[in-house]
Design a protein that fits this description.
With about 240 residues, the protein is mainly alpha-helical. Helix 2 packs across helix 3, helix 6 crosses helix 9 and helix 6 packs across helix 10. A hairpin with a 3-residue loop joins strand 3 and strand 4. The strands form 2 sheets. A two-stranded antiparallel sheet has the order 1-2. It has a two-stranded antiparallel ribbon with strand order 3-4. The chain has 2 domains: about 100 residues, no CATH class; about 120 residues, no CATH class.
Amino acid sequence: MSPQTDTTGDIRVEAQRLIGEMRDSVESGDQHWFHALLHAVRNWPLSDETKGERHYHYLVGGEAFDWLLLAERLCEEMTDLVPEDEAEALLFHERLPLRTGEADFEGLLGAKYKPHLNFVYGVRVEAALQIAVQEEVRKELAAGRIWDNNNHVEDEAFQRIYGKSCAELLAAFKASVGGDSEWLSLAELSEWHYWLFQYRVQNSDPAKVASDTRKGLLMLQTLGSRARLGSSAPA
């Protein structure tokens, strides 16, 4: 057995140990399930793993940490211990089961907090920025200020944000990751958005980067508000 295999095996053993500790802590009443989960998240040693037929990719671009994806994975290990409504509120609506300030959350995540912020800004804000600019384009189309054509909204939004078409950037992304398909798989979406974020930062002037980031943040907040309204609407 190679040293690499030994190391991988040790990491997987550590992951299983953390899962066992998490469950024990909740079952014994020592910790609320959310704090026990975050303790496991903070110390989780795997950047990606395959469980059953699903592959989990927690570290996007080697530096952006998707903690909610790991939370989903860990909640699956505690389905008998975690109230279903609380798990759904966390995973689908990002409503934490306990009141947790940002400083407290930073302390609970530890060294993974900065990679978490990388994910927020590099993946979620980037995706929200695209939605925001697409909405601007649609409003201009509705007002008759610009002409429509096939795929105009997405391409126009990409030109305004990145200075290139979606097709051009997708080809460059695929070349950088070694993919040969012209389509994105669901598993590639986070990598795609993070790659676009890095491209935008490297190829736009700082003032535009800051302005676009603020626009993306505002849209992300708006989308969060819409989701909360939708989840609280009467059936």
